[in-house]
Amino acid sequence: MERLINQLFSNWGLLAENFRGERIPLGVGVFLLLGQGLYLMLRSTIWIGLGWGEPVQISSIIFFISMSAVGIIGFVDDRWGRYDIKGLRGHLQYAREHRKLTTGLWKVIIIMLAAMLVSVNIAHPNHWWFVIVILMLSSNLFNLLDVRPGRAGKLFLLMGLLSFFLTGDWYGLFGEWLGLWGVWLLLIIGDLQGKWMLGDAGSNLLGFVTGIWIISLYPFWIQLMLGFVFLWLHWFAEKYSIQRWVEAHHWIRRVDEWGRIR
Hints:
Layout: H1 2-11, E1 15-17, E2 23-25, H2 30-50, H3 58-80, H4 87-98, H5 103-122, H6 128-145, H7 151-167, H8 170-173, H9 178-192, H10 199-217, H11 220-239, H12 242-248, H13 250-256
Antiparallel strand pairs: 1-2
């Protein structure tokens, strides 16, 4: 599989330097989207043809359309993004100076529209704006943290297990997302080994799905608490550096390195 991915992403012009300076495939997280799409198609086919299982709900279709938009724009940013422009402030400054939107700003717009679509489906009429904020913050937070092998994938697993502990909703966390989890299992080892990078296509998508869990399964007080935590982490990342903070604290660095294969 490694050879196939290397050849495919090389042909697409999607090899990029990782933090070690090695050129490896970037954006393999797009396969997460394909896995979930195939799973929903299979579920629909089995239910229609054989009458087995549960039909695909409208909410599942809306979630998939939304996450597709996030994954695709992330993939576009992986392929054509400007990596010399850092942070939202940098992208806004570039847009003002050149009268042109970067792929990074397009990504913000598309993720906001995707979050709006989700909010229409599951939000209380008075909380739709809060749903949008949580989804955007969660999606971008995974992207901010994903600067070392396996970090976004491990955080996704941690949030899945934590969510199951808090809610006990096995189907809403795993059964509904079986295709996504299946591809996650295929990709996480190579990610931890530094053979490929999920890229924005993967990290933004995993963060967006985590946001869906938060706003659809968690009680509001936990949503509110996590919203403040996400805001603080964004402020901290903009003003300082999460990576430098991790490296400066031995036990945090040890936790961050769990599962990472050198």
